[in-house]
Design brief:
Layout lengths: L5 H13 L1 H14 L5 H27 L6 E6 L6 E7 L14 H23 L6 H23 L8 H5 L11 H19 L20 H26 L7 H27 L4 H15 L8 H26 L7 H19 L9 H30 L6 H6 L1 H6 L18
Antiparallel strand pairs: 1-2
Length: 434
């Protein structure tokens, strides 16, 4: 959008002011799902991730992301006469130089991009919990916030080739991702998958027979309170995205808020019902993960979904999360303490595809679903190998995982020198097998 009305600008600013609560909620959830002996390390890691992501994004990330209508690097495919322009990278100035600090859409989009980079960088913390070195966390975050996230954000939000699929090839409105289901969450979830693969499982997670062992989180209150904070923050993020990237009028933000709540509520209920049937009682951690999975899934097209569709998308997302958390452990030997891969990558992919099929996007026609499929294929086929390669290099030269003795005594003592709960013994290993 070249300009916003005064009411749109005010609403966007208010939405972005509450959006950081999504980061706070996710940090609490990651901490609660881990063991007590690493709780302070997880929260410290969250603060470091947000700090690194914000600084690196301002230094160079925003210049790669850009904004629709600004200068960018373009490739013409199909010849000069009839070729189609593919904008693949922003060409803005670093350090937010050139931005008008007067509430312009470009400035607000940069602010949202900074928050999105921070939120995406928090997601891998859940999968690498209790064994990922703080220094390597910061290095990985710097690359994600400074390159991986801005690159895909340009394609989706900055007028890049995915957003231009509608104009260039008649595929609906082009790739649509209002609140960042793909740009933030699938990207972060695929990075979490890469980190989990490279780190390997926690000591004691798998028994001698290869079966996964339950390692319960230490604080269900943190987890569930984090869900409530995330709901508020997600509503702000989705509202800002709807104004900036979907061009909706202020009155439509009511639908965005309703769909955001419905997505979380139906997914949480779905996960609770499934765990009640399967295990005899609802599981609080899986219910919480289902809740977040619903927020992730509904974000893609939250401005264009009828409420009934938001409920359906949430229910399926909650079911997917409840089943995928177990399947990743049981069949792929992936240890993901925070459920980040299932919650963000799997639910996000579902939300992108379902939004293309069920969303009522203006003038989208029949090509909208194909545009969403292309976006998902790009994330899996390009972003996943790239983020795996980046973290492989970090592991090769700096090392991702702490030493076995450090993991055994707990990340709080090993890397911070003090525990989160010094009055309790929080680092027993009696149950560990390997």
């Amino acid at each position: 959008m070249s300009s916003l009305s005064d009411s749109q600008t005010i609403l966007c600013i208010v939405s972005l002011l509450i959006a950081p609560l999504a980061c706070a909620g996710l940090a609490l959830i990651n901490s609660g799902l881990g063991r007590a002996r690493s709780a302070a390390h997880t929260m410290t890691g969250a603060l470091c991730v947000i700090a690194v992501a914000a600084c690196v994004y301002v230094i160079c990330g925003r210049s790669w992301q850009g904004f629709a209508g600004e200068a960018s690097h373009v490739i013409t495919i199909g010849g000069k006469a009839s070729g189609k322009p593919w904008s693949w990278l922003g060409a803005a100035s670093p350090f937010f130089a050139g931005l008008s600090f007067d509430g312009s859409p470009a400035l607000l989009a940069a602010w949202m991009g900074m928050l999105g980079a921070a939120l995406a960088s928090l997601i891998p913390l859940g999968s690498g919990s209790e064994r990922w070195r703080l220094g390597s966390i910061c290095i990985s975050t710097a690359v994600l916030a400074g390159w991986t996230f801005p690159l895909f954000a340009h394609w989706a939000w900055g007028g890049g080739w995915l957003a231009q699929l509608g104009v260039n090839y008649g595929l609906g409105m082009g790739y649509v991702d209002v609140g960042g289901s793909g740009t933030i969450h699938v990207l972060g979830g695929l990075t979490a998958l890469s980190v989990a693969w490279l780190l390997g499982a926690r000591k004691g997670k798998f028994g001698f027979d290869g079966m996964p062992m339950a390692i319960p989180g230490h604080n269900a209150v943190y987890i569930l309170f984090g869900c409530l904070l995330a709901l508020v923050g997600w509503t702000g993020l989705n509202a800002a995205g709807a104004l900036l990237f979907a061009g909706v009028q202020p009155g439509r933000l009511a639908l965005v808020a309703v769909n955001t709540i419905l997505g979380a509520a139906s997914a949480g209920l779905g996960a609770a019902a499934i765990t009640r049937v399967r295990f005899g009682k609802p599981d609080s951690s899986l219910t919480a993960n289902g809740w977040i999975g619903g927020l992730v899934a509904v974000s893609a097209t939250c401005a264009f979904l009828p409420p009934a569709a938001a409920i359906l998308i949430g229910l399926v997302a909650g079911a997917l999360v409840a089943f995928c958390v177990e399947q990743f452990e049981l069949h792929l030997d992936i240890d993901d303490p925070g459920g980040s891969i299932s919650v963000h990558a799997v639910a996000g992919i579902w939300g992108l595809l379902a939004g293309g099929a069920l969303g009522r996007l203006p003038g989208s026609g029949g090509g909208q679903f194909l545009a969403q499929v292309i976006g998902v294929a790009t994330l899996i086929g390009f972003v996943l190998p790239m983020t795996f390669g980046v973290n492989w290099l970090v592991n090769r030269f700096f090392g991702l995982r702490v030493a076995p003795d450090a993991e055994r005594q707990g990340m709080d003592l090993a890397e911070l020198g003090a525990g989160a709960y010094p009055e309790f013994v929080t680092h027993t290993d009696d149950f560990m097998q390997r």
